[in-house]
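Entry type: protein chain
Record version: 2
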Amino acid sequence: MKNVGAIDKTLRIVAGVALILLAVVPSAYQTPWGWIGLVFLATALMSWCPAYSLLGIRTCKVPPGSERDGAPGAA
């Protein structure tokens, strides 16, 4: 079930790439934050965030007739 919307996905991709670049570009800013960047990229590509699921957050639009509207079995 998707819970990451388009704007959220774009922000995750930008943040993920920035954090990975900080980890791999030879400079004084190398940090282990690149691993967090990979998480941002993975959740953006899957359009699903486990933390959002636990907290009941959804940033994507819900189509009419889905379970959010009370209709059972709709995807």
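Comment: The CA atoms of residues 5 and 59 lie 5 Å apart.
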